[in-house]
Design a protein that fits this description.
9 helices, Arc Repressor Mutant, subunit A, 6 strands, 2 domains, 13% strand
Length: 217
């Protein structure tokens, strides 16, 4: 347990079970060790929490006020960026054209670039349709920032109403989509989506040319 504790404490990012098992003595029941560590830290100033099926130490929620004076003021995302992020989170994998259809207005390349620069949105692959448009999804960093274990933990319609984020004058048939577990970092692709085969080439695609100019092969 002390060895696992040391590894998790020193890690710069969350660790999964396999990463821990590779560094612990052969035959170690890593799940049991994690469970023991969770119980040990449950009432302490830091807690061991699971994010995207990985483990990391986080400051206990009730002590977050102690960090406020050290917090760096972050630049707020524009409304367009927040709306685009929400659409990607709930509808992933989603193309730029689909985002525009849902929002009802065009989405600038700069808006998507900002979301990718934050590390919250990534290129997933290409839709298996004419033109092979790029698809977008959220990242592990998105889950980590918003404290979600997986993408399925995003609030649904009832949760949003309870939080006062939706009023009672919703249009008939209004629904909040249920985020798919297949939309998270590292999960399986959808039937109509080709995996990100091009690696850095896809990143270069957005950095140096518009989506509409992308080659189809």
């Amino acid at each position: 347990m002390r060895m696992a504790e040391a590894l998790l404490f020193a890690a710069a990012e969350p660790l999964d079970i396999d990463s821990l098992a590779a560094r612990l003595p052969a035959g170690t029941d890593v799940g049991a060790v994690i469970e023991d560590l969770q119980k040990f830290y449950e009432k302490r100033g830091v807690n061991l929490v699971r994010i995207a099926n990985k483990w990391i130490f986080r400051t206990a929620d009730d002590l977050s006020f102690l960090m406020e004076r050290e917090a760096i003021e972050q630049k707020k995302l524009s409304r367009a960026a927040m709306e685009t992020l929400a659409i990607i989170a709930y509808h992933q994998p989603v193309t730029r054209a689909e985002i525009e259809e849902i929002r009802g207005v065009s989405v600038s390349k700069g808006t998507i670039d900002v979301l990718m620069e934050t590390g919250w949105v990534r290129l997933r692959g290409r839709r298996r349709t004419p033109g092979r448009p790029v698809t977008y999804g959220t990242t592990e960093a998105f889950l980590l920032h918003f404290g979600l274990e997986n993408i399925g933990d995003l609030p649904g319609l009832d949760d949003l109403k309870a939080a006062g984020l939706l009023d009672g004058r919703l249009p008939p048939g209004f629904e909040v989509p249920t985020p798919s577990e297949s939309g998270g970092e590292g999960d399986g692709e959808f039937d109509d989506e080709a995996p990100e085969e091009y690696g850095a080439a896809l990143d270069d695609h957005l950095a140096h040319m518009g989506e509409d100019e992308a080659p189809s092969d």
